[in-house]
Amino acid sequence: MPRARIHRIPTSSPDDTSGLRALINAGDLDPSKLIAIIGKTEGNGCVNDFTRAFAVSALTQALGEDSTGVSMVMSGGTEGGLSPHIVTFEVLADTGPGPAMAIGTGLSRDLEAHELGTFAQIDCVAETVTAAVKSADLTGAADVHFVQVKCPLLTADRIAASRAPVATPDTLKSMGLSRGASALGVALALGEIDLATAKAAKIGSDPDIWSGRASTSAGIELMGHEIVVLGMSDSWTGPLRVDHAVMTDAIDIASVAQALARLGVGETTRLRVVFAKAEASSSGLIRGQRHTMLDDSDIASTRHARAFVGGVLAGLTGSSDLYVSGGAEHQGPDGGGPTALIAEQI
Amino acid sequence: MPRARIHRIPTSSPDDTSGLRALINAGDLDPSKLIAIIGKTEGNGCVNDFTRAFAVSALTQALGEDSTGVSMVMSGGTEGGLSPHIVTFEVLADTGPGPAMAIGTGLSRDLEAHELGTFAQIDCVAETVTAAVKSADLTGAADVHFVQVKCPLLTADRIAASRAPVATPDTLKSMGLSRGASALGVALALGEIDLATAKAAKIGSDPDIWSGRASTSAGIELMGHEIVVLGMSDSWTGPLRVDHAVMTDAIDIASVAQALARLGVGETTRLRVVFAKAEASSSGLIRGQRHTMLDDSDIASTRHARAFVGGVLAGLTGSSDLYVSGGAEHQGPDGGGPTALIAEQI
Amino acid sequence: MPRARIHRIPTSSPDDTSGLRALINAGDLDPSKLIAIIGKTEGNGCVNDFTRAFAVSALTQALGEDSTGVSMVMSGGTEGGLSPHIVTFEVLADTGPGPAMAIGTGLSRDLEAHELGTFAQIDCVAETVTAAVKSADLTGAADVHFVQVKCPLLTADRIAASRAPVATPDTLKSMGLSRGASALGVALALGEIDLATAKAAKIGSDPDIWSGRASTSAGIELMGHEIVVLGMSDSWTGPLRVDHAVMTDAIDIASVAQALARLGVGETTRLRVVFAKAEASSSGLIRGQRHTMLDDSDIASTRHARAFVGGVLAGLTGSSDLYVSGGAEHQGPDGGGPTALIAEQI
Amino acid sequence: MPRARIHRIPTSSPDDTSGLRALINAGDLDPSKLIAIIGKTEGNGCVNDFTRAFAVSALTQALGEDSTGVSMVMSGGTEGGLSPHIVTFEVLADTGPGPAMAIGTGLSRDLEAHELGTFAQIDCVAETVTAAVKSADLTGAADVHFVQVKCPLLTADRIAASRAPVATPDTLKSMGLSRGASALGVALALGEIDLATAKAAKIGSDPDIWSGRASTSAGIELMGHEIVVLGMSDSWTGPLRVDHAVMTDAIDIASVAQALARLGVGETTRLRVVFAKAEASSSGLIRGQRHTMLDDSDIASTRHARAFVGGVLAGLTGSSDLYVSGGAEHQGPDGGGPTALIAEQI
């Protein structure tokens, strides 16, 4: 019977693997059981953020042969007080009662540059998510609380080399299209939208079509998709629980507080991990008040949003080592975003 | 008997005075009674932020002769979801019970460039604050809840023209020294520190000496100090109440929640205005977790801190039109900062 | 007989009008003869650059009634070593030999938000340029060497208020579309392209269609177009001469050196003013070497290009108070741009 | 008899080693003969630029055991049109006439955090340079044309862990102090200043004391100093020649043009490599015209200066794959900087 184990490990730089190695050396982490590492690195989280690839390179070196098959999803950007860290996911064999948190992973084929931001990407992601859900022994989409997708972006080089026209010549904008198409792929796989809707969707500009459980990040270091699925399954055991909330706007703490209560945080459990998506509302407003994130040509709006929503959630949870990821296209309602919470029984 | 009246007015750009003019035209704001305008503008809040001066220029033009004697304190930087706005302060004549919120203002002499960041600046500010407290009929320092100071900064031009060595050749750093010296001036005037401590203080690098009620912002548009004092006085009447809290770190919502409770917000009053200071802790940590604000050479740490603490307070209060000002040198403990709250009886 | 007079005036901040006022007070500049002021201000040159509007506001105040009818075109961004300054254009009455530099100006109607970046904008600009050329007594398009257009941009507010779909929801991108459509308007007016080409042009993504004499800048402070035309006319007199060059890429100094030689700079004339457009080549290459301007999410490519081309031209001319303006969509070939040079007989 | 061989290799990302590996595979580069790699990577060149360490990590992996003893000096920042690339230096055995370009390298001990920016760092660098000059068989300091030093910087972590007070708590500023002390170490070793001057120097604020041949870059990835010395020696053979120029300000192309002429570039040789230092003049002026680099809180002045001087030199040389490094404290006169040029006989 599988049991999930997680570690939340602070990092002092993108290539810092000392915490990981210390846990391995102490026998608290079995690298042969690792299936995923999700982390925040301290780059700008946009096109020219090489901290993600640097972290993956360092983790791969540190793990050696054990790195094979480990999904590594690094999200750049620790603006505001956010704290760089990684979360490791192991699957151990154990016996005990269920239900408990279950994990599945998947890796899609490489996209071609001209497929990015089109239905071809939606379809590619949906197929991989469906397989990952099945691999985690999750009985249905209703038991899935979080789907993390690391997706590709376009660079000037990739655009120049493309054999067909690309969706956008703007490299920063390509990140948004890729995140959006990936989120729609999750929504399609989880039944949040149907195939006709997915095919008709205007990717990146149709804010009413969204997944409440997708979290997608674009990175320069891959052309495929790395996928990690979290849910609750009767076939898994152990002390971990996962739930999710959909923030309706950037300052909606009520929905997250309710999920914390459902998990019994502070009563029967303690909070271990927070995953959240953040974005600037396209209306330019938060509860009727103007924000300036979309008109700022010095700082990308994704950076503003991570810092701000990081503050919102850090104030609520009392901790700053949160995974807050920018760019929530088709992930939750416009200006809001999905949040997933992992708690551990005390 | 004086009564304070305030308006919180959203602005669509630094030079937008349409909201102010509409209130005047509707008879809801009497420009001849104005004594102060405090606002947030959407520049970078650092050296080359001309949105502050542009706002002051536009307000001065809009008010015409009524602008004389009105303290105008614009703080740059609406990072994250913060919303540009101004708060107007009028003093009307009225009768009724006290105590109520009282306001005083003051304007110091111009500093010389070489005085910035030295005891001469502390002394200059302390003298002006003392006079402003007296002008507001506040019986003692204990009744003072907020002292806003707009202070100068050094530019390359001012440094080159200085007749004596300046405290720092780094223009961004000069803003911190000016804010710090001004805060120590407030602390000295309010009896939070004594004269010997003020004289011995290492300005900008002595985080244990601070004011719990000072809020200081540096701007390119003046060489003197504009000062606004808020407190509770038996000699004033009206529905406004003011209190303050000192955040012990960037995510300390408990202290602010207590002040909201003391004011009866949500019960007998509604929250009208929030003033807060924000900064990156010099330890590089928030509750033991590393932040990256001080190592980021792309975005000034003051911008990170405003976005993040803006999120913390917006999550708590449910609103984003907050006055969160960066650079809290000697304003509250390291990494935290003073917060002032104005509520109105329902 | 008209004679053009110019002054190149350094500014110490966006609202510095002291140099202008000093010239007026000394009798060296007659404000009633002013028809245009073109300048560089020190903002980011992108969407949230309020230094342009601040400069226009200050100049308007300083000139009082004389500001009526004066075209004011401020271009933001003095990256690298570029030096903020304004150039004033007066038209005096005189007698003497021709030909000499002639000036014409024009002001278009306000665009609606949804017209920006479409043929409606091309048409609007072309009509205004044609009128301005005629007003300057320029006999034909061949005598025109420089057409400066100040054009509008979209903001989150303007997009939200638009009564029809806009060309792009991305405010920074709207600047490029506006500059591009305006340049095509110039090309159409000067016969560099024909009407069919203008109507079929993919604005912003058709780099082979361009004007060799257009210089367009987008600003938040207007919704119409301010146009200034410079050329050589037998009907004008005085010591000023104007010529132009088209840089084929960002480091093409040969074409500019030839124009300097044609003008006799260093022999019979001295260089007074340089106007140039700069942009990052969409190929991502300069003479086969990769540049990183388009992949940088921290600094807009327009800022990189101004700094770099500013260096190229400052090295060649020995001076840094150059008008180098970013965003050369449809202004010269991809990665290059038009340059205009004003020289004065010694 | 030693012969130096160099390759200038473009890179498509910080970790791109494909060009290096292709040369090795083709037999055109012998990794066992490598002694140094100097390169430009596309980060911000400031504190949180991890592209330098990522490049060193990738090169080390690609070279395997051959990486031992190879000095790797990566300078971050390819602003403007500058092109990321590396230059490899091999020492082959050959016979033939001299003189020719000679190379020496050195590696200092690790500094302690509190030594950074003090005479201890000057002394440490001087000693290592002297040894490197000797190792290259350069008979005297007069034959040395270029000394590249990679030096450390302070981070928030290093400051917190320091056992003694550090020179500055500002991490960005620590880069300047480190570059400055390293340059003075070069000046001392080459006899450009004497020991008394070095001991009395106010590091970072004494612009009249400088080396005309030092080029120093700070990076987060080391605490010691990597040193590469280039000069002309009768004991070396081969087609490479090196010379240097000192730019007196940011737009001084005359001095560089003279060095190009001395080397016979365009006549008997072709230009292979340009190394240059760039900085914003502390006066705030370039030939009397104001620049805004030091007042810009959005973009570090080092980034402005690299972009601008990159343009100056690219215009002159017709190529953009130049090593232009920011932060020229004590490297050439204030606002200018040393430039080294390698040419190859045709």
Q: Would you mind describing this structure in some detail?
A:
The structure is a homotetramer of 346-residue chains. Chain A has 3 domains: 2-93, 2-Layer Sandwich (60s Ribosomal Protein L30, Chain: A); 100-228, 2-Layer Sandwich (60s Ribosomal Protein L30, Chain: A); 239-345, Cyanuric acid hydrolase/Barbituras, RU C (60s Ribosomal Protein L30, Chain: A), CATH 3.30.1330. Chain A is built from 8 helices and 14 strands. The first copy, chain A, has helices spanning 18-25, 51-63, 119-135, 156-161, 171-189, 195-200, 253-263, 301-317; strands spanning 2-10, 34-41, 71-76, 85-93, 100-107, 144-151, 214-218, 226-233, 240-247, 269-278, 285-286, 289-290, 323-326, 337-345. In chain A, the strands form 4 sheets. In chain A, strands 1-4-2-3 form a 4-stranded mixed sheet, covered by helices on one side. At the A-B interface, β12 and α8 of A face β12 and α8 of B.
- The CATH architecture name of the largest domain in chain A reads 2-Layer Sandwich
Oligomer classification:
homotetramer
Number of domains of chain A: 3
**Radius of gyration of chain A over all CA atoms, rounded:** 19 Å
In order across it, which strands form the biggest sheet of chain A?
1-4-2-3
The number of helices of chain A is 8
Largest interface: A-B, 44 and 44 residues
**Which stretches of chain A of 5+ consecutive residues score pLDDT under 50?**
none
Average residue-wise pLDDT of chain A:
96
| CATH level-four homologous superfamily name of the largest domain in chain A | Cyanuric acid hydrolase/Barbiturase, RU B
Could you say what the CATH topology of the largest domain in chain A is called?
60s Ribosomal Protein L30, Chain: A
Largest sheet of chain A: 4 strands, mixed
Note the run of SSEs of chain A as H and E: EHEHEEEHEHHHEEEHEEEHEE
Tally the beta strands of chain A.
14
CATH class membership of the largest domain in chain A? Alpha Beta
- The backbone outline of chain A, from C-alpha atoms, is globular
How large is the share of residues in beta strands of chain A? 25-35%
Structural class of chain A: alpha+beta
Helix content of chain A: 25-40%
Distance N terminus to C terminus of chain A?
Answer: 21 Å
